[in-house]
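Hey, can you fold this?
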Amino acid sequence: MTFPSRFVGGPMEPEPATASTPPRPFGDLSTAPAADIARLAAGVRGEAAEVTRSQRGQATRMVLDYLSGFVGTTWQERWDSSFVGQGLVQANSIGSRRATGLAVTPGIRALYCLRVIRPSQLVFRLNTLQGFAAMFVEAQGDRLLHRYVDHVAALPLRHVHQRDAVLDLCNLLAVQGVALADVTPASVLFFAQENRRARCRLQPGNTVSNRLIGHSMWNALHTMGHFPPDTPATMRAALLRGQRTIEELVDRYPIRNKAVRGLLIDYLQRRRADSDYSSIKALVLALVHHFWEGIECLNPGQADLRISPDLYAAWRQTIKFKDNGQPRSGQDGIVITVRSFYYDLHTWAAEEPERWAAWVAPCPVPPGELHGLGTRRRRINERTADRTRQRQPLLPLLVAHVEERYDQARSLLERADQAADGEVFTHHGTTYRRVITEPDHKLLRYGDPVPTRVRNEDSGLLIHIGTDEEAAFWDWASVEALRHSGVRIEELCELTHLSIRQYQRANGEVIALLVVEPSKTDRERVIPMSAELFHVIASIIRRHTRHGRTIPLVSRYDNHDKVWSAPMPFLFQRQNGATPVVFSTAAIQRMISRRCESLSETNPAFRDVKFTPHDFRRIFATELVNSGLPIHIGAALLGHLNIQTTRGYVAVFDEDVVRHYQAHLHHRRQVRPTGEYRDTTPQEWNEFEEHFDRRKVELGSCGRPYGTPCQHEHACVRCPMLQVNPKMLPRLIELEADLLARRSRAESEGWIGEIEGIDLTLTFLRIKRDETQRRAQHPPVDLGIPRPRTSKPPGDQ
């Protein structure tokens, strides 16, 4: 069996390669005597020991003797009719080293290399053939194949990917019976699909078998120049279909009335000019599938758009439920789409009657159909507000979980990397042993990096700590970036190294900015980065450049618009085999879901609550407005074109939104009664900059908004707006010691009121100290910013 895959049915039709001339490196051996073939098999690899060559010849003769018992005039016909050739049994059923003293698989391998037998993909995967690729390359005597092997060896790939690139090509040539000159992109796709089917049949139920192989081979053939110039650079790009035409989108649904089909195509073609691809897909789904296909199911003879009230009422009942029987929440959207369709035809018919007038009909949607739409939308906003209300207090738990998991994985990886093979060490009270397996030693001999592995001596569990640390880092980076920036999930995936900008103030202070590319609203915006957000972005950049390389240029596939971007240094990318790929929105969603599921095992509050990337955006908006930021500034940071959209995001604190917004308008009218949008004067700009300078205090900086005075009479330790500088931790310790001394004096003197005030100050001080220590645990990130060159003395030039 196979599993569903979105990589089946792409724009390029997979088909096997066709041999212009059948490859016969040793001539036509289809009917050659068994003794002659065995002698050729023994001499294929001259560097092998004499005993190995002899055993290979004997194994080949054993296989041919087995095939002689089946019907056929050629060895291939006998192979196809045999149990081994049909994949019913493994080759070891003929004879194994334990039973006969001679392994039979070297004979099978030799027959493949000599081109005597052409196996199916299932049979090739069923039998493990050691050293097949090296023997096959030598046996073919193909200079183009040797050039491919040399080209793969020169590519900057790990040895395991170089090995797979050569083995996969030899597999393709043996199964499809062609030479390298006959290989086409379509034949590589056919090879990948057939491998997928064979692996799923041999390992049913294993979703890993559903993956397509051959990516390294595709990359090598493309960089070698073997494919045509217009061939996609990666196999994934060739498998993804891209945008469909309007006709293809409509024809996905069976429309009986050809005239109505033509009308729908014309209508969608006109709407395509002012809509993006994802909107057109949603329009096709609502108008073609839900509306007209449903109408034809109820009345197959419907000839035009004139829908009777009874037919409309019957159709209206069909869209109340989904195909799986669940209530449909998007009924209003379908009805609005249908009504817009009819009204658009009315309007267009006045402009182009020769084209649209014949289809004008009364709109079947009655005037009172959408009665209560505003109420239903308010119910949706209430459910959204309740969702935010449930998740806001749980966010600190999720943040602490991903931080703790990443800190533990990072520190364990650093300790394990310092340990020798077999060394036992203790980390956070647990005993581990560094493990380097025999396959790891083989990879190390080729210069390939291997994932760091340790064994928990208490449980005996083997931990791939290198892989775990990589996963923990991206879990932490995704959660932190989403909650500190408030960007949409698509915008997060589109962040690149070029998104980072800086603004230098007149006093020399540099402010980091994050440029968010246009997405949903097609509107670029700039976000001033907080210290926490800058730390996350800097950590991602450092991870990509830690081996002295630049961030790889990768093309990102947009799942909504079905297009590929230009190669860009995307921040959220990782290595997938031999190819770097950008994180998809679904991958980040799965990462967050796994963290919530892990927390639900120890925290009951997470058992019925799941976080989505958009939940972080709503919480970010709520905290912004609740902390005093004017709502129109919050709308600009979130990229909302309508301030009412932002109000919907912070509906959980609706009274605070109204109060802050009205206070801001009142203050603005008093300060700037005329010339609301005039240019700022130098005095106003200096006052704006001086505000941030006046926020600097002994322990750090004050986070109060612009234009507001200190409301806590400079009681900074108690003030929630104080942001403590980690460098001032020793000063906090001094203040705590002084407060404790004052408390002792107050106890001895009996100053009860003084004791209460000191205890309150101690509580706030310790909270700020713990929070600052937690933030200070993150290792500093060195971006490698170059220093200005100093001029050399003339004698040193």
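Oh, and this one too while you're at it.
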Amino acid sequence: MFKTIKIIVMAMLCPILKVGAQYATKPQLKNQIITGKVISASSGETLSGVVIKINSINQSVTSIEGGLFILNLPKGKFILSAQYLGHKTRDVEIEVPLREALIITLNPENRNLQEVQINAGYYTVSERARTGNIQKITAATIEKQPISNPLQAMQNRVPGVQITQTTGVPGGGFNVQIRGRSSVNSQVGNDPLYIVDGVTFPSAKVSDSYFGNILGTTGASPLSMINPNDIESIEILKDADATAIYGSRGANGVILIKTKHGQSGKPQINASYTQSISKVASHIKLLNTEQYLEMRNEALKNDGKTPTSLDYDINGTWDQHKYMDWQKLLIGGTAATRNAALNFSGGSDNINYRLGGTYFKEGTVYPGDFSFNRFSLQSSLNFGSENKRLNVSFTTNYNHNSNNQIRTDLTTYITLAPNAPDPYDQYGKLNWAQNTVYRNPMSLLLAKNTINSDNLIGNIIVSYKVLPDLVFKTSAGYNLIKTNEFSKLPLAYISPAYSPTPADRTATFSNTDNHTWIAEPQLNYNKKLVYGNLVALIGMSFQENAVDLRSLQASNFTSDELLENIGAAGSLVNKLATYSQYRYIAAFARLNYSLRDKYYLNLTARRDGSSRFGSDKQFANFGAIGTAWIFSEEKFLKEKMSFLNFGKIRASYGVTGNDQIPDYGYLQLYNTSATYQGIPTIIPSSSNIGNPNFAWETNRKLEFALQLGLFDDRLSLEASWYRNRSGNQLIGDPLPLSTGSLTVRANRPALVQNTGWEFLTNVKILNGHDWRWSSGINLTIPKNKLIAYPDIEQSSDAKNFIIGQPISIYKVYNLRGVNSQTGLYDIEDHDGNGLLDDRDRYLHKFVGQYFYGGIQNSVSYKNFNLDFLLGFTKQNGYNYASSQSTPGLWSAIDYPTANQSIYVFDRWRKPGENATIQRFSTDDAFDSTYENARAYGGLNISDASYIRLKTIALSYSLSERWLSKVNIKRANLILSGQNLFTITNYKGLDPETQSMNTLPPLKTWALGLNVTF
């Protein structure tokens, strides 16, 4: 009954919805009303907008939402032709009358993948026609991951891009390298260029943070201010052809982030909510109390000593039978996360809009109430004139972040003695155990830090078609990042053993304003020729960035409760006040020619000017050439290789530059100093001395690549080989102390080479109506080498690098193991002078990746979809020993974190015994031997390879038939996970962060619901 009523109602609504047949005459009663649905064979989704023609009677209809359509046909045989963009046209023969509804399944076109549009920054190009190396990640991939930073969405998904999360603390930092480290200077010059909606975005921390080590070695990640759910796509540009149009800014690759825009169509509302929980995925096995006391007593026995009054852990002051699992107490909590979003969108062919808001809150695994909060607003408005000549696009993104954390990562204290006193006494107050505890880790919870940041990104793009083939386009953008930081050290934070006074109460107040504006006018010419197509682009770029930082340190408060009131301070000190301005100007051009849709030539050029160089060195020229040949279009291959539906060879070569150095490096800088007779004075900067002669680094990039689509695109493959050579290195040369400055910025003749292979494959294993399964693998095999460095022996880098070896090596002594007679590490005195110095470090160990990548899978059955990503890395890294003291050594002041990994129990105990760890000791001489073995003998370097289940997501799409009854268009339920398990032989907490003092990336489970009305 319901089905009959539905058919009659739809038939009545056909004229209104413009989906009914266009009748020449009034339908006769002998005609039959036929209902049907169109679905995609690849995804199983219904398709609206499919044109269904019946040429024999000149009739056509268009499917509406849900893929539904209606026909009114007389009795007889007919051929229906279904046509839809991006899908193969299908002819279906039917005979009227029909006994059941008609279902038409459409297959994607063979070249559908090649027609995907790629954002190359200043222009767009199809996947088929691109001559450069550009990889794309879409919102569909990002939305399935429970992440807080866009960089997490790219991990192990893009070949040639190595992204390392430096801490599991919310808002923490990341290291990003595209095709390896190109600069000898590890501190600057290796970050890619980030562009968000056409506006340059910082790649490094934007403020002088006082968070201590809590946010990782790189500080807070600026991209944590961007909501991943607002992102429509991320494109990664790698080779010279793709990056040279960005000139010096593209030397280390470019990452383009495009936020979501409005789409034409009926107004709709999208709402989503996700709740997740996170924990530390794994713990390192440490000594228990019995083992710990055995280590400490054995160390004293080896040294012929007895416990002193300060050896609280073994002299009876502390309970000898007590056990405290500091890992569980300090980092064993559960972090809860909430993510809620609401978006409105809609519009017509000429104007569309999108407005959305998101609230995100992520907790921590530490004790106490600490969290990272983000509130974001995102809007876009696109307008086009009736004649299609004028188009205006306006986007704004506003994010307010509030990060409330402690100053010190509590992971540092997981190696406290396992019999150390409880952190709180019976009254719930901090337990200083009769002033015997140098550091009660719970006191660190009182040293709070808060950073509030506001990030506004606005961009407007106006394009006007001056002539049919000529378009003028201009883009203007603005980015503002304001941060307010507050850090406090209350009196209660300090042990009473130090007799603290009000002068020890301190608070730091810091403000940073980071302004960037950019304007880029350009002309685009697109002309179809007899045998091909010519595209030309010419434009200019104007950019300015200004950073204003101010910091005051206040002290002498009368109460801990007044620390947030700067007016209550007894004294104020101007800790820092800086202002820097960076200006940049460029002219760029692109010429692209395609012949017969199979031969492509792409030329790009750019002239850059940077304020970071002296007056004679400010300008430089960069450019690239890219070519491609789609050999699958050749007739002789089409006839003989029917299984090959797409094949392309491409190559590129070009020169990019690098100006990633601090501002004003070519000038002699001065700092304020003490007053003299009441008059303020200045002194030369101790960190840098002026040098107007240094110039741009240059990066020469070469690439060859092969792309294949086989068996109707069921198998696709892309293989790339690259070689990047970075020379004229910008490095800080050390100076003698007598000069009063530590370094001078200068170019060195070092030449760093990065080569490698990148592979990207995807195979459609199943492609049926109900079952679909696709799998993909990406693999990167990088090679890094210092191929030239004239006179390196006379430079300070002689102790760090070797010509012909990677720049990520670590020069070490010849550590010959543990001497079986003495129990000490046997280290070779290579030059025989009786001293261990840099000249004895003639061996080296590699610290870096041999290869890395990911294995992606997507399996669908009807309304269920399962996606998962396995990330893998083969590498050497720093293990637990990199931050551990000598086994057995303990001091209430210097070494309160004396516990060790269980690995140290393979130690030497008696003459003639073979062991991997030297004898336990509390003696400074033994400590020196251990430090030489650990820090310079390579004891702290070992295998850090791992395989990690990076992401898994199980989603279910609710039935459209059921949803239509409650006026819901789509609804998806998603259960997802991040960093769920790791397979590794790594000796330490985590093979990614490689630190015993840093919170590792967390394991996360999330449940979310996404509904569209």
